[in-house]
Amino acid sequence: PAFRDTTCPVCGGHAVREMDTMDTFVCSSWYFLRFCDAHNPHEAFSKQAADFWMPVDQYIGGVEHAILHLMYARFFVKVFHDLGLCDADEPFTNLLTQGMVLKDGSKMSKTKGNVVSPEEIINRFGADTARLFILFAAPPERDLEWNDTAVEGCSRFLNRIWRIFIAVADLGGQDEQMPAELNEADKNLRRVAHGTVKKVGDDIAARFQFNTAISAIMETVNALDDYLESAAPKPAVANETAELLNRLIAPFAPHIAEELWQQRGHTGSIHRQSWPEYDEQALEQDTVEIVVQLNGKIRARIVTPAALGKNELTALIQDDARFSEWCDGKEPFKMIAIPGTLVNIVVK
User: Fold this and answer.
1) How many Å separate Cα 212 from the centre of its chain?
2) What span, in angstroms and rounded, lies between the C-alpha atoms of 219 and 202?
3) Are 202 and 282 in contact (CB under 8 A)?
């Protein structure tokens, strides 16, 4: 082109003008629209493709993008919208800005000499441990302080899962049907396990709260361990819990989850399996623990039928032989009952 090829103003010889002079934000502000129609040779993107895919459901990026890049992206999309090139008026529906990994209170950098080598962690503990620690140590939107002791704790947790799965395998009965009659220990483990399926699914899909999801998995591992130590663990109950745990840990510790899946005799990869579904009936409780308070201070904890309403719960507390003791011998003028949780006795 005539503009690109020119004469050097210094020596008078042939010269080429620099053509790539536009700011990087000019490209990064609308790349997602090109992704909608990446192989279109005639235009940047077709309106039909853009209207089908846009807006982007979820944007995940560093907080440093929140001011410049995201502002420019909104500006470009609004201009394209006004020009009739796309129906979308906003580029992104949801935004998650993840935190940084810190060491000794500062962002990791080679200049500061506080970088933790991933290779060292992986060689010592394995990739699953490194992954589990990063996901468990803090919510995704918060900065994460690297902690070697906590990394070791995650390694011990994964080793514990392995040992528990060996214990479940030794129990046998992997193909046994769930018995019609279950005792309280059986019901409690199933309630914990299926409650964890529900919580982990919600934490991942709705809130990106991987740390609380992993915490719930840890509670289920503890419950399964305690159950296996009980007098007469039922193979069907233990294996059901192990099967659920196997799938639940797969997103967080994919390698050990895959190995456990194969060890349990399954074919195909665990990462191609459907997400587990929880059993609503397993979540039902026959009894619940109620906190008894006097003017907001805890006086007792009692076990009551789970189905009690406000009036029934209040009557049960008033009929208890310890009611006068809970009230310090005073006459209550108000009782606040929250079924399944607490009863607060208010006295003057």
Assistant:
1) 6
2) 16
3) no
pLDDT tens-place string over residues 48-102: 999 999 999 999 988 777 788 999 999 999 999 999 999 999 999 999 888 888 8
Tokens of 54: 């846009």
How many residues are recorded in the chain? Answer: 348
Domains of the chain: 5-98 (no CATH), 120-282 (1.10.730.10), 286-347 (3.10.20.590)
State how far the alpha carbon of 153 is from the alpha carbons of 133, 147, 260, in Å.
9, 10, 20
Residue 279 gets the label, from left (phi > 0), alpha (psi -120 to 50) or beta, of: beta
Q: Where are the alpha helices (DSSP H) in the chain?
A: 24-28, 31-35, 47-53, 69-82, 118-125, 127-137, 148-171, 184-202, 210-228, 235-249, 254-263, 280-283, 310-319, 323-326
What DSSP line would sit under 63-110, residue for residue? GGGTTTHHHHHHHHHHHHHHTTS-S-SSSEEEEEEE--EEETTEE--T
Angle 334-340-344 from CA coordinates, rounded to 5°: 20
Q: Distance between CA atoms of 236 and 234, rounded to whole angstroms?
A: 6
